[in-house]
Structure formats: structure tokens, C-alpha cells
Design a protein that fits this description.
Helix Hairpins; globular; mainly alpha; about 75% helix
């Protein structure tokens, strides 16, 4: 993944372009990577290593979202709405 794309995601969803630790920026980065891997797996159905990586990313995103939901429900609702996640 290119560094400039990460900077763009962190600038949009975090407090600044170097804000890599906030839950919102982590969820946004995970979502971008999940979408990228999903497109890859549509073309390469037998790539089991990537499929496993995708499932790990989905679990990481879920745990960060669960943490955000427990600590600050308004921030959780905002990031879910911005990213268009189902829950």
C-alpha cells in the first residue's frame, strides 16, 4: 500500500495525517484494505493466503469497532455511517 494513500485516509478520518492510532483512522484503513483484498479475491478464487489475511483484517476491524462502540457510541455511529458499514 502506498504511503500517500495511507496519509490521505488518516487525514480524512483521523485528527491529522499522522494520526494513526485513533479508532476511526484504523477502521478506515482496515476497510480500505478489506475492499482491496475482496476485489483481488474475486479474480483469484484459489488464493487461500489472501483469504486468510482478509478474514484476519475483518476480525481486527470488528474488534476495533466493538471497542469504539463500548467507549463512545456517537463516534461509532459516525464512522459506520461515513464508511457505509452495515452495522
Amino acid at each position: 500500500m502506498e504511503a500517500d494513500k495511507k496519509q490521505e485516509i488518516f487525514a480524512k478520518y483521523g485528527k491529522s495525517n499522522t494520526d494513526t492510532g485513533s479508532p476511526e483512522s484504523q477502521v478506515a484503513l482496515f476497510s480500505y484494505r478489506i475492499n482491496h483484498l475482496t476485489e483481488h479475491l474475486k479474480k483469484n478464487k484459489k488464493d487461500t493466503v489472501t483469504r486468510r489475511s482478509l478474514l484476519r483484517l475483518v476480525g481486527k476491524r470488528r474488534s476495533v469497532l466493538d471497542y469504539l462502540q463500548k467507549t463512545d457510541i456517537e463516534r461509532y455511529r459516525k464512522i459506520v455511517k461515513e464508511l457505509g458499514l452495515r452495522r
